[in-house]
Design brief:
Domain Transglutaminase-like: 171-237
CATH architecture of the largest domain: Roll
Organism: Mucilaginibacter achroorhodeus
Strand content: 35-45%
Number of domains: 2
CATH topology of the largest domain: C8orf32 fold
Number of helices: 7
Helix content: 10-25%
Protein name: Transglutaminase family protein
Distance between the termini: 55 Å
Order of helices and strands: EEEEEHHHEHEHEEEEEHEEEH
Number of strands: 15
């Protein structure tokens, strides 16, 4: 039963005074049998009232408006959580019986939402790969593991080449990305064969295991398995998401689980800094920081990202090819 202390700081710095910053935050960790929240403190600059509610997908969500003129705003989330391991699927049902059960669930709520594919032109190219990776005798469980292995082996983990606005087609062409990109690709494959799949946001907190995305915000997928329920699968590390993964929210995609998003009034551009530190049982602290800058002369979403670095990467590749 590992215990983790996590601090997640979101800081906005504006070029000039802005006001009426209205935000929605999903920074409240899930509290259930496998994740015990010992303490959670959330503070916001100016101390606005934060109203909370449970959204459609069962996530605790907060909303607030920082009305006064300001040139910076900090959202500081600090939590202590104990995670409990979850038993893996026994997988003793016949494969055909499990696939038939999934087929009968295709029009049942809430699984409809997690079976609907997002727009993806590359699906025609992915289709034969999915068919090759799915063996006739495999159960949904083993099929999901095979898909995770494919994403892990065939897509390179590179920070900065994608943003939250990068499309599935861009990720598919680049064959690279980060955890949220890997999760989205895995969900496409799972949904294609009729396995409900949902996006999970949170943190990965390994104890010196050197896993991708450790000590930072992280994302993975959950697949619904007959006779078991939702199983977390982390294609970024090609592993089952278990006691080293701390869950914040679930949804159809990143947009449903975005930790912070909103709008403000003012013509100033802003810089967004996100830092996450994880304290381990042995006292070790791992910290990651990302900085994003945007300029603006009109109201902008509070969580704005830089120019798509995928485009920059492709321009570089094309220039190299022309020089050869």
């Amino acid at each position: 039963m590992p215990e983790f202390k996590i601090q997640h700081i979101t800081k906005y710095t504006y070029d000039n005074f802005v006001r009426d910053s209205a935000n929605k935050i999903i920074l409240y960790p899930i509290n259930d049998l496998f994740q015990e929240v010992l303490k959670h403190d959330l503070t916001v600059t100016g101390h606005p009232q934060v109203d909370t509610y449970i959204d459609y997908y069962g996530n605790q969500t907060g909303s607030f408006t920082y009305i006064e003129p300001h040139r910076s705003m900090i959202i500081n989330s600090q939590l202590s959580v104990i995670t409990h391991p979850r038993a893996l699927p026994i997988d003793d049902m016949f494969a055909a019986e499990q696939w038939n059960e999934l087929y009968n669930m295709r029009n049942v709520m809430p699984y409809i939402d997690f079976l609907k594919q997002e727009y993806f032109e590359g699906l025609s190219e992915l289709r034969p790969i999915v068919q090759a990776e799915r063996k006739i005798e495999d159960t949904p469980y083993h099929t999901a593991l095979n898909f995770s292995k494919y994403v892990y082996k065939n897509f390179e983990y590179i920070k900065g080449v994608t943003t939250v606005e990068t499309t599935l087609d861009e990720i598919w062409k680049l064959r690279a990305g980060v955890c949220q990109d890997f999760a989205h690709l895995l969900m496409v494959m799972l949904r294609y064969v009729g396995i409900p799949a949902r996006y999970v946001s949170g943190y990965i907190c390994p104890n010196k295991d050197g896993m991708r995305g450790e000590g930072a915000t992280h994302a993975w997928a959950e697949a619904y398995l007959p006779g078991y329920g939702w199983l977390g699968i982390d294609p970024t590390n090609n592993c089952i998401a278990n006691e080293n993964h701390v869950r914040l929210a679930v949804g159809r995609n990143f947009s449903d689980c975005s930790p912070v998003k909103g709008v403000y009034k003012g013509s100033a551009g802003h810089t967004l800094e996100v830092s996450v530190s994880v304290g381990y049982e042995d006292g070790l602290v791992h910290e990651e920081k990302d900085i994003f800058t945007t300029s603006s002369h009109a109201p902008k979403p509070a969580q704005s990202m830089p120019r798509n670095s995928y485009a920059k990467y492709m321009e570089m590749i094309q220039q190299q090819q022309q020089q050869q």
